[in-house]
Amino acid sequence: MSKRALVTGGAGFLGSHLCDSLLADGWNVVAVDNLLTGKRSNLAHLRNEPRFELVEKDICEPFDVGRVDYVFHLASPASPVDYATYGVETLKVGSLGTFHALDHARAYGAKYFISSTSECYGDPLEHPQKETYWGNVNPIGPRSVYDEAKRFSEAVTMAYRRYYKVDTRIVRIFNTYGPRMQLNDGRVVPNFMKQAIRGEDLTVYGDGSQTRSFCYVSDEVDGFMRLAKSDEPLPVNIGNPNEFTILECAKAVLKVVDSTSGIRYDPLPQDDPKQRRPDISKARQLLGWEPKIDLETGLRLSLDYFRKAVAEEVAAAH
Ligand code: NAD
Ligand code: UDP
Predict the structure, then answer these.
(1) Closest ligand 2 atom, CA of 204?
(2) Which of 34, 52, 54, 90 sits at 20 to 30 Å (Cα–Cα) from 62?
(3) Distance (Å) from CA 206 to ligand 1 centroid
């Protein structure tokens, strides 16, 4: 019998790329998604793929898609704008949705993989961030709907491992970008790409000195696949350790798009982490993984997608 994987959030940015990688690796794949922030069009290229199906369902309700060998739980709004809009939905999918995904794995004796986040480290006081760092998170601030949901979902995952012997993996993802990101999810790369392509000013929040480390999607998903095949039960950071200020990121986008847009300084959102860079020693040693694609190359690889997305938006407005 062929291996069958369930991907929650499979119509989203990372979920759809993971479905592609699993199919390429010989798996049958069932994606479960309620299309809250995902799109059918992210999976349109799989329309005639007999080994793939999309089930439209909210995983906050109990669900059963039949026997699977691996559950990949990615469903959750992920951008600060999305989880500010869908705060309660984010808490529910991180809690109820995580229970249901774990119950599905337990019922079929499947392995389980959850997409956690660098947000578990909050506004970090340790830099770069190692997996052993417990974080600096405001439990009641505007980002808490996401940060605490993810921290809770890591706790539930470890509890199912300890109490029910479910074979689990936890990835802590750092800012990842690439084709199929929503154009309007407010994250920095789509915002800057869209603004540069349209010739509008790039909106840098604060003075742009805060840092992030950007990972191209193919590197990220390669890390997922390696972790999924490993035996590591504890969290593993998967992200690109090259750290940029947001102002440097804006300049890289202007160069790649060859845009004459200017830069506008807007207020910094509350609790915006000042710095973020993964320590990836564990992924290097354990998985032989490290990212291959630098920021400028990744932005170039994403350019066609963002140009098309901007053109479609313009066409839809007319
Ligand atoms: P995304 O918004 O593109 O994808 C999330 C998907 O989950 C969407 O398709 C959405 O419709 C689906 N979903 C949400 N609630 C659901 C529910 N109740 N039932 C079924 N489906 C539901 O975001 P993404 O960037 O692809 O993120 C995927 C995962 O990776 C998330 O868990 C996110 O927290 C994590 N992550 C992403 C990043 C990043 O930089 N992209 C960083 C850290 C963590
Ligand atoms: N940011 C910005 N301009 C934008 C969007 C985001 O300066 O148009 C900043 C944001 O304040 C943060 C960083 O870019 O410091 C990354 O934001 P994003 O929403 O992409 O992800 P985060 O890492 O904060 O979850």
Answers:
(1) 7
(2) 52
(3) 26
299 residue type, one letter: L
Q: Are 170 and 154 in contact (CB under 8 A)?
A: yes
Of 310, 42, 18, the closest CA to residue 173 belongs to 18
Question: What's the gap in Å between 269 CA and the centre of ligand 1?
Answer: 21
Closest atom of ligand 1 to 181 CA is: 3
199 burial type by CB count under 10 A (0-12 exposed, 13-18 middle, 19+ buried): exposed
Angle of CA points 250, 148, 156, to nearest 5°: 125
Pairing of strands 211-213, 243-245: antiparallel
Catalytic option among 146, 160, 177, 216: 146
Is pLDDT above 90 for 318?
Answer: no
pLDDT in tens, 207-260: 999 999 999 999 999 999 999 999 999 999 999 999 999 999 999 999 999 999
Which residue shows structure tokens 């199919």?
Answer: 23
The overall longest dimension of the chain from CA atoms, in Å, is 58
pTM score > 0.70 for this model? Answer: yes
Half-sphere exposure of 142 (CA within 13 A, CB side): 12
Cβ pair 55, 44 in contact under 8 A? no
Please enumerate in sequence order all residues whose Cβ is within 8 A of that of 26, keeping only pairs 6 or more positions apart, or say none.
Answer: 2, 3
4, 67 contact by CB (below 8 A): yes
Handedness of CA 246, 251, 257, 263 (dihedral sign): positive
Beta bridge partners, 136, equal 122
**In whole angstroms, what is the distance from residue 118 CA to residue 257 CA?**
28
What number does the ligand 2 atom closest to the CA of 189 have? 20
pLDDT of residue 87: 98
Q: What is the pLDDT of residue 1?
A: 64
Active-site residue flag, 146 = yes
Mean pLDDT confidence for 105-115: 98
Instruction: Return the percentage of the chain with pLDDT > 70, whole number.
Output: 100
